[in-house]
Amino acid sequence: MPFKPADNPKCPxxxxxxxxxxxxxxxxxxxxxxxxxxxxxxxLLDSTNCSEHEGELYCKVCHARKFGPKGYGFGGGxxxxxxxxxxxxxxxxxx
Length: 95
Fold this sequence. Notes:
Layout: E1 23-26, E2 29-32, E3 50-53, E4 56-59, H1 60-67
Antiparallel strand pairs: 1-2, 3-4
């Protein structure tokens, strides 16, 4: 009977095998320690500051910035509340 190595789970970031000594678990998936970082700011994560969204890892700050509430009072400022479509900036058609 030939030797058959144990099947190890694959890291979603790099696709390589993840061994027990180097695994980090988030979102039901196992990650390498160096692949376990924020998808936006590349900050290394731990179990207290990671959020998973559709298979991608984010730190709490970036997750709130990308998927959290928008508008005045949520870091967007009054500029994002404008309903102006920019019609006054379009030139008149010369006939």
